[in-house]
Structure formats: structure tokens, C-alpha cells
Design a protein that fits this description.
protein transport, 14% strand, cilium, GTP binding
């Protein structure tokens, strides 16, 4: 069995690909929908898996090997043929003696003789056998003069030197018993395949009909509830906007405008990271373990190098994980940036001084537990190496709201200047961002939505956060 999976933007296009590659006998095995593209949904795609049974068209060997018995050979002498016809009319049977095939016969003679024998067995004789309906011959042929029988007047049989066209139908040879069983098994298999294909088609049609039905309208209020936005914030939004706006379809452009306007009033955004006009900008990324600090740093560095053509340097203080140092070195090599490893605040101060002519310096730090006071004190000493170092607290959007709130409280001792939320693609609920930052002075700088460098990061704005909160 040959299995094939295709992806297309529509069911029709996928079915055409399946038919082109596997033929019309292909059976659908699996279908699914998914979105391909950026963090805000991307294009809807169809994935279809189908298979074709390569043995379906095979003929049973017993049936293919069967050879019909040779037909009896009629005599060539006209008088002898006439005598045999008379005997056939008189006794109901025809006795045909075996003889060599004359040169006047063509390739259709055996089939014609089998038909003639069939008619003779029914008592009609050779003359009746010649009345088979058949298409006219391709070219005129010579015929011998008909015989004139004395006892009974009847039309003379045609000469056997003429070309005899093939009969309309030929009797099929009887299949052997085991061949019948194989044919039954093959028929049952084909029926099962057809049933499976019909079931798959019904499933696809049901999905297509469901997709064509008008979707349920979800209001802004209900969408925020699904995102686990706190009740008091939803009520505050309802009080600030007209009733007609709060009940808008959450997928409409107007709904995004309404929510973005509210977010800009209750939160602060920095729209990414902007470099100053004088001197290099030193930025450190801090946070707990496993939130994506190193990957986020690489995305920001790639943005500066590839899109703004700026000069920079990378510094890592994460000496607890060898993999972190190697990972950052690979990113630096790809981007053509120098990278340094530091073990103390003094090392960091010297490294920053060596690269003070660069446009930007990005510092990666080791993950720290908010409950480990020693680690938190060590981090504070490291960050004190440069007075104008800008600190971005990195928090995963998959973190429980209570834990995220405690992380923000504990890391406040390091005086973070910005906050970044990562892994927004790994959760359906990003209400934690609004819940934690509403009414706070700490601005949101970036939203990260995947592992791809440098693509999966966007500068944070009220409009982009609104799109995340109102996504399906």
C-alpha cells in the first residue's frame, strides 16, 4: 500500500493533489486543519493523508492462467459440411471430426467455431450459427456458390474461406473453485475500501459544512473572560466604552481598536528597544531558569544587526550551564559579533569598557530562583557593574499568575526597567500579561512567540497585545 500526505490551502486543492499522485482509487486515511504562519494565526491549511492499494487491480492467477479448451475443427469439404448439417437437423447433434485448420481461416475462427458448436448443441445446426449478428467485414471477400440440398430447401452455409468477424460476446470459461474464493476475497476487500472511503468523505463533508456555517459571535467581554482576564478589569473596560462596543464581535477590527485603546490607558508599552543617540546601550536580560533569556537576547541582537546594520557585542555571565555559553557563541558567530564570558562584576565592567565603541552590548545572565537569596544578591552585584545598564525581566506567559506575580515582586530588588513575556505561543491564555501590568509602572517591551531566531519576537504595543487577547 502506498501512503501519501499532502498539504494545501483548501480541501479541493488537496483532493486534486491526491488524485494526481495516487489516482482515483486512493482512500482517504486522515484529514486535519492547522494554521501556518506568524503568531496571530497565519493561513489556514488542510492536511490530507491518503493511500492506494497497489494489489487492488491484480487478477487471480488461477483465472489468468485458465485456457479454454480448443474448439472442434469443421471439415473443409462443402459436401461433407452439408451432410453434417443434415445429420444435425435430424438428430439434434453435430458430429465434427478433428481436422487441420485450413488456410482460409483467420484468427477469429476458433471463437466462431465455439459459437457454432453452442448453436449446434441447442439443435439449431450450423446454418443457425451463421446468423450471429456481427459488424460488416472490412473488405469484400469471395464466397463459394451455395449448395442446393434436394430433400429440404434451406439456405446454403457460407464458404469457410471468408474472414469471420468476432462474435458480439464469447462464453466465459468456468473458474476453478479456488479462483472463485480468491475473487470473493478481492470483492470483499474492495467493498471494505469503498466503505472506508465513504466514511472519510462523510467526515470531510461534515467538516466542510461546519466550516461554512456562521461562527458563534464572541463579544470582547467574553473573549477576555476566556483569556482569564480578571473580572474587575473586564468590568472596568465595560464601564469605559459604549455598550455597543463591548458587545462587538471580538474578531472584528473595531473590537481590536476598542481594546487597544483601553490597554494604552491602563498599561505602558515601549515598542521594543530603541538605542540612544550617544554612546553604546548596555542591556541585560534577567529572570528565572528556562524562560528563554538567551534565545530572546539572540533575537534582539539579530534585529539590530540584520535590520538596522548596527555594531554590537554579546557578553554572557551564565557560566553555570556550558550549553548556554556554546549556544550564545553560535549565535554570535552567525551574526558576526564578538562574544565574551565573564565570571564576576569586575569582569563584566572590563568587558563593557572594551566594547564601549559599539552601538549595543547585550548581557546574558544565569537563571536565578526568586526564593534563593544568595543567588539574588549575586545577581544584584553583577548588575551594579554599569550604572546605566538597562535591565529587562524575562517572564514566561505559561507561568501561573500567582507565581509570575511573586517573580516580579522578588526581582524588583534588581530594579528592572522593562519586562518581556515569552512563550505566548505555548498557551491559549495570555490574560496574565494584562493582569500583572495593569496599573503598574513597569512597561512591556517585547512579546516572544516561538523559538525561531530572529523571527519569533515582536515589539510590544497596545494593538499587538489586543490581537493576542482577542485571538481565536
Amino acid at each position: 500500500m502506498q501512503v501519501k500526505t499532502v498539504r494545501a490551502s483548501s480541501v479541493k486543492e488537496a483532493m486534486e493533489q491526491i488524485k494526481d499522485e495516487l489516482g482515483s482509487d486512493a482512500v482517504l486515511l486522515h484529514t486535519k486543519k492547522y494554521r501556518e504562519g506568524g503568531m496571530l494565526g497565519g493561513a489556514e491549511m488542510i492536511e490530507v493523508t491518503a493511500a492506494v492499494d497497489e494489489t487492488q487491480s491484480r487478477v487471480p492467477r488461477s483465472a489468468a492462467a485458465y485456457t479454454p479448451p480448443p474448439a472442434p475443427i469443421l471439415p473443409t469439404n462443402a459436401a461433407e459440411r452439408y451432410r453434417m448439417n443434415e445429420e444435425a437437423f435430424a438428430g439434434g447433434t453435430v458430429g465434427v471430426a478433428p481436422a487441420a485448420v485450413p488456410q482460409g481461416y483467420d484468427t477469429y475462427a476458433p471463437a466462431y467455431q465455439s459459437q457454432e458448436s453452442m448453436y449446434a448443441a441447442d439443435g439449431y445446426g450450423t446454418a443457425a450459427a451463421m446468423n450471429l449478428q456481427s459488424p460488416p467485414a472490412a473488405a469484400p471477400v469471395q464466397q463459394t456458390a451455395p449448395l442446393q440440398p434436394q430433400p429440404v430447401e434451406q439456405p446454403a452455409p457460407p464458404s469457410y474461406t471468408q474472414h469471420v468477424p468476432p462474435p458480439a460476446t464469447q462464453p466465459e470459461p468456468l473458474a476453478e473453485p479456488h479462483a472463485e474464493h480468491e475473487e470473493d476475497d478481492a470483492s470483499a476487500a474492495r467493498i471494505r475500501l469503498l466503505e472506508d472511503e465513504l466514511a472519510q468523505m462523510k467526515t470531510m463533508l461534515a467538516a466542510m459544512m461546519a466550516a461554512s456555517q456562521p461562527k458563534e459571535i464572541v463579544s470582547i467581554r467574553d473573549a477576555l473572560k476566556r483569556q482569564d482576564v480578571r473580572k474587575e478589569l473586564r468590568e472596568e473596560l465595560a464601564a469605559k466604552v459604549p455598550v455597543a462596543d463591548i458587545n462587538l464581535d471580538s474578531l472584528s477590527p473595531r473590537a481590536k481598536e476598542v481594546l487597544a485603546g483601553y490597554l494604552s490607558q491602563v498599561m505602558k508599552f515601549t515598542d521594543g528597544l530603541r538605542l540612544g543617540a550617544h554612546g553604546s546601550r548596555v542591556v541585560a536580560f534577567i529572570g528565572t531558569t528556562g524562560v528563554g533569556k538567551t534565545t530572546t537576547l539572540a533575537k534582539v541582537a539579530a534585529h539590530f544587526v540584520l535590520e538596522q546594520n548596527l555594531k554590537g557585542a554579546l557578553i554572557t555571565a551564565d557560566t553555570y550551564r556550558i550549553s548556554a555559553v556554546e549556544q550564545l557563541k553560535k549565535y554570535a558567530e552567525i551574526l558576526g559579533l564578538p562574544v565574551e564570558v565573564v565570571y564576576s562584576a569586575a569582569d563584566l565592567k572590563k568587558a563593557i569598557a572594551r566594547h564601549r565603541s559599539k552601538d549595543f552590548i547585550l548581557v546574558d545572565t544565569a537563571g536565578r530562583s526568586q526564593y534563593n537569596d544568595f543567588q539574588m544578591d549575586e545577581l544584584k552585584q553583577l548588575l551594579a557593574a554599569h550604572p546605566r545598564m538597562e535591565k529587562h525581566l524575562v517572564v514566561s506567559a505559561t507561568t501561573k499568575e500567582q507565581d509570575a506575580a511573586e517573580i516580579m515582586a522578588r526581582f524588583s530588588a534588581c530594579k528592572p526597567d522593562r519586562i518581556i513575556f515569552t512563550k505566548t505561543d505555548e498557551t491559549r491564555s495570555v490574560g496574565v500579561v494584562l493582569n500583572l501590568l495593569a496599573g503598574k509602572e513597569l512597561p512591556l517591551s517585547f512579546l516572544s512567540n516561538g523559538q525561531s531566531v530572529p523571527d519569533d519576537i515582536i515589539p510590544a504595543t497596545a494593538q499587538r497585545l489586543a490581537e493576542l487577547l482577542l485571538r481565536e
